[in-house]
Design a protein that fits this description.
single chain; 427 residues; mainly alpha; Growth Hormone, Chain: A; two-stranded antiparallel ribbon; 17 helices; 2 strands; 81% helix; 1% strand; globular
């Protein structure tokens, strides 16, 4: 198959005839069937892979404080988790651009399974350093979860893009909520294996991530990105530099990345330290675990609604709704800092705000760039949001240790306001 290329053509513009024609010649009914099957497989993988993420979110800060012996270091495991996601985001996106979604997502889940196993060993041995290593690897699973939502849109139409993306986000809820809720079951598993009680949830998470990798490796055929024409056959068109460039020069892409990055930073900062704050005020580990489950449910349970809103009302209005919900959560956290019930409500609203902003902004980013540049642009967005979450998690522990929990949520609310203004202005 000859290349549509001349010596004067820039590398960024090289495409193959196959990449141009294949999506056009594929029977529409076959393309639709593959799209539906892809969403189903991604949903199944999200359920299984979400187990380790849920356990990490629920227990990360508590394990950090327990194994390090310092409240100021309580947020470090969550920080390392998000750093792991950030580190994996660009390489996995590059791999997807070269080889497709199937190898990229499967490899990430295998690394996450190894990481959850390492965390379980670290908890049993009481080694803080080993805990951080394992959390970094588990973060790769978070990167996979983020990229899976984009994979769901590879074959979507503009009218259903938000819905398809949100369905994959929605299914993350099952595993993520089950992770904290399975703390008692994990303790029993740990007992059978002769491990510390809090190691058990991570054992279950390792099994879930490995199973998710098998599901995607075996079932994600044909590869949705290849069928959509988003793999330029090894040219430099899918470079990560191109991803940065297309975001920088596209106002809607800039607004989308800004919204998803800010929403994630606010969510991570508040979510990571609220369990510690509640625990210090006398809440049991069971109550803490259930509060995080409620928060994670808020993140995912109404994701399909947010997707429909993004499709019907618009991407930007839904983003603004998300920022308003984040602000509301922070105000409640500030006013009800001493109320366990109030903090649970605030955590649920925090999750809803993250959901609306992330679903709508991710949809906006996807349709703002050409299909051949989507993997690198999406990788840049995911890495940016993960880095923002890492910084937010690290600073959250320091802020709470120095100034208190109320100062943390007040600052997070200010970020939500600034983000809303930016999204409206940069269009």
């Amino acid at each position: 198959m000859p290349l549509l290329r001349t010596p004067s053509t820039p590398d960024a513009e090289w495409v193959t005839e196959r990449a141009v024609t294949e999506p056009q010649t594929a029977p529409e009914q076959d393309r639709t069937a593959v799209a539906r099957r892809t969403v189903v497989l991604l949903c199944a993988a999200q359920i299984l892979g979400g187990l380790s993420m849920g356990a990490s979110l629920a227990l990360g800060a508590i394990l950090g404080e327990r194994l390090s012996g310092s409240e100021s270091l309580a947020g470090l495991p969550t920080t390392v988790l998000t750093l792991g996601a950030a580190a994996a985001g660009l390489p996995l996106a590059a791999l997807a651009g070269r080889r497709g979604r199937r190898p990229a997502l499967s490899l990430g889940l295998v690394i996450a399974a190894v990481g959850a196993t390492v965390v379980a060993l670290a908890v049993d041995l009481g080694w803080f350093g080993l805990l951080l290593v394992g959390m970094a690897c588990v973060g790769t699973g978070t990167a996979v979860s983020l990229q899976a939502r984009f994979a769901a849109t590879d074959l979507s139409s503009a009218a259903t893009r938000g819905r398809d993306l949100s369905l994959v986000v929605w299914m993350t809820m099952v595993g993520a909520v089950a992770g904290p809720a399975l703390v008692p079951a994990g303790a029993r598993v740990a007992g059978w294996l002769g491990l510390a009680d809090l190691a058990g949830p991570f054992v279950l998470g390792a099994v879930g991530s490995a199973a998710a990798a098998v599901v995607l490796w075996a079932g994600l055929r044909p590869d949705p990105l290849r069928l959509a024409g988003g793999m330029p056959g090894g040219t430099r068109r899918a470079s990560l530099v191109a991803g940065f460039a297309v975001i920088r020069r596209t106002p809607s892409a800039r607004a989308a990345v800004g919204a998803v990055v800010a929403a994630h930073a606010v969510m991570v900062a508040v979510m990571a330290l609220t369990p510690v704050h509640m625990h210090h005020d006398g809440a049991s580990l069971t109550v803490v675990g259930l509060s995080i489950s409620a928060h994670v449910a808020g993140m995912y349970v109404l994701a399909p609604v947010m997707g429909v809103l993004a499709d019907r009302v618009g991407r930007v209005p839904t983003i603004l709704l998300g920022q308003a919900l984040l602000l509301t959560s922070c105000v409640l956290g500030f006013l009800l800092a001493d109320s366990q019930t109030g903090l649970v409500v605030a955590l649920v609203i925090l999750g809803l705000g993250w959901s609306a902003s992330t679903v709508a902004a991710s949809t906006l980013l996807t349709e703002s760039v050409d299909v051949s540049l989507r993997p690198p642009a999406q990788g840049v967005a995911d890495t940016s949001m993960s880095l923002a979450g890492a910084v937010a998690g690290a600073l959250a522990g320091v802020i709470v240790g120095a100034f208190g929990y109320s100062t943390l949520v007040l600052g997070a609310g200010v970020i939500a306001v600034i983000t809303a203004i930016y999204v409206v202005a940069d269009r």
